[in-house]
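Continuing the series of single-chain predictions for the mutant panel. This is the parent chain; the variants come on the following pages.
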Amino acid sequence: MPTKEIIESHTTDLGTLLDQLEGLPRETRISFGGLDFYRVKRRGPDLVQIEFNQSVYRTDEDLLVVEDHEQ
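Parent structure:
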């Protein structure tokens, strides 16, 4: 299980996200830089995860890896 510090360094609060989206029409399209949106999943009482059809992670050698699961 990731530590609280790791979670906080890789997340933002919902208020910040909503502030940045404020004023946009509901039909506004959102791009995720080539990732395909899958779902939003609750991971705890105050944590949700935006999931994609791809996994993105860093290896122990600090290489960025993208795996596509939508096949």
